[in-house]
Design brief:
This protein has about 400 residues and is of the alpha/beta class. It has two domains: about 1-45 and about 300-395, Aspartate Aminotransferase, domain 1, CATH 3.90.1150; about 65-300, Type I PLP-dependent aspartate aminotransferase-like (Major domain) (Aspartate Aminotransferase, domain 2, 3-Layer(aba) Sandwich), CATH 3.40.640.10. About 45% of the residues lie in helices and about 10% in strands. It contains 16 helices and eleven strands. A seven-stranded mixed sheet has the order 2-8-7-6-5-3-4, with helices on both faces. Helix 8 links the parallel strand 5 (about 175) and strand 6. The protein starts with 11 loop residues before the first helix and ends with a helix. The mean pLDDT is about 95.
Length: about 400
């Protein structure tokens, strides 16, 4: 039977990891994989995570299942972090939160729920978007369509985005990036969020906001502006969130799906259906990462320490952005790449072509995704000038 199965190309980013590991060039630089790295190229375990794990080691009394909706301490803490302590929707008990195996698990759970209960509606994704977005919704049987996000000059094209959303059929789903847009790094301003909200309302669209990088843009509350605006302004909304980046829990698969309903009763109806979708998919989520987050957010001391660790990571990335732009100055390219300092989060949509990206890999052992997306957190003070010089070589 299996003789009819054809081989397919491997995941491009995982392929980059393998190629980078086999590269013997001492100057090699990995700008491909989407994880935070410190100046020594490590993805560290946060000190607060270590402390929480030590406490859990002493306290944990069982390895039993935690249920389809997950760890209640975790879901309540994450909901407060995302929605805000003073959220009217939260106080009205209109939000159902389900723990998921990472942000990807949250997206797939959302997709399965939408396919079951809003069948026939398309989902609109930004062009470009995270490469796994279309794959997830396509696999769930939801038609994927696109709205423009950047122009030919590699800048946010908000007016084109807004015009396209204004043509989306009533009832369709639109996926928005809460902050740190992946892969471009271009975020919406507060005024632009208000304008998108107007279109969503007037067209009767259902937003799904992907919130994978809370705290990596401008701060925990600042990054949540669009999410909280929509939560307090709409009757229905889906939010997917992840603790992979802001808690450094990549391999622990710690995410959540939040669903806003019109009232408390409808929220419970939705909640039962989400539980069925989870049961059919993965049954129950893993415990460890969620327990760590709950332990941190349940302690004022650990929460404050974690916020500082997060601020340090954010500050390092924003500092690298400014320093990277300055590194282009000797090559006469500072103005061309000035947008890098304006972007937010780990990623930069550099505007480099596939051929230029290939030359960077082949000639300089600098690895980035073929689309030209670079992980700024993969840079170090030692590699800034080397990478800037290499890019200057391939673009001239």
């Amino acid at each position: 039977m299996f003789e009819r199965i054809e081989r397919v190309p491997g995941d491009a980013i995982l392929g980059l990891i393998e190629a980078y590991q086999q590269d013997t060039n001492p100057n090699k630089v990995d700008l491909g994989v989407g994880v935070y790295r410190d100046d020594q190229g490590r993805t560290p375990v946060l000190a607060t995570v270590k402390k929480a794990e030590e406490q859990l080691y002493q306290q944990e009394a069982t390895k039993s299942y935690i249920g389809s909706h997950g760890d209640t301490r975790y879901t309540e803490a994450v909901t407060r972090m995302v929605a805000g302590e003073d959220s009217a929707a939260l106080k009205a008990q209109r939000i159902s939160t389900t723990q998921t195996p990472g942000g990807t698990g949250a997206l797939r759970l959302a997709a399965d729920f939408l396919k079951s209960h809003l069948s026939g509606r398309a989902i609109w994704l930004s062009d470009p978007t995270w490469p796994n977005h279309p794959a997830i919704f396509d696999a769930a049987g939801i038609e994927v369509k696109r709205y423009p996000y950047v122009n030919a000059d590699n800048r946010l094209d908000f007016e084109a985005m807004l015009a396209a959303l204004g043509e989306v059929p009533e009832g369709d789903i639109v996926l928005l990036h809460a902050c740190c847009h992946n892969p471009t790094g271009f975020d919406l301003s507060e005024d632009q969020w208000h304008r998108v909200l107007e279109v969503v309302r007037s067209r009767g669209l259902l937003p799904l906001i992907d919130f994978a990088y809370q705290g990596f843009g401008d701060g925990l509350d600042q990054d949540a502006f669009g999410v909280r605006l929509f939560l307090e302004s709409l009757d229905e909304l889906l939010i997917t969130t992840s603790c992979s980046k802001n808690f450094g829990l990549y391999r622990e698969r710690t995410g959540a799906l939040m669903v806003l309903a019109t009232d408390h009763e409808q929220m419970h109806n939705v909640r039962t259906q989400v539980a069925i979708a989870a049961r059919e998919n993965y049954s129950t989520p893993p415990s460890h990462g969620a327990a760590v987050v709950a332990e941190i957010l349940g302690s004022q001391a650990l929460t404050e320490e974690w916020k500082q660790e997060l601020a340090d990571m954010r500050g390092r990335i924003n500092g690298l952005r400014s320093d990277f732009v300055a590194a282009f100055r000797p090559h006469g390219l500072e103005e061309r790449f000035a947008f890098i300092a304006e972007q937010r989060g780990m990623f930069s949509y550099t505007g480099l072509t596939q051929e230029q990206v290939k030359r960077l890999r082949d000639e300089f052992s600098i690895y980035m995704v073929g689309s030209g997306r670079a992980n700024i957190a993969g840079l170090s003070e030692a590699s800034l000038e080397y990478v800037a010089k290499a890019i200057a070589t391939v673009v001239k």
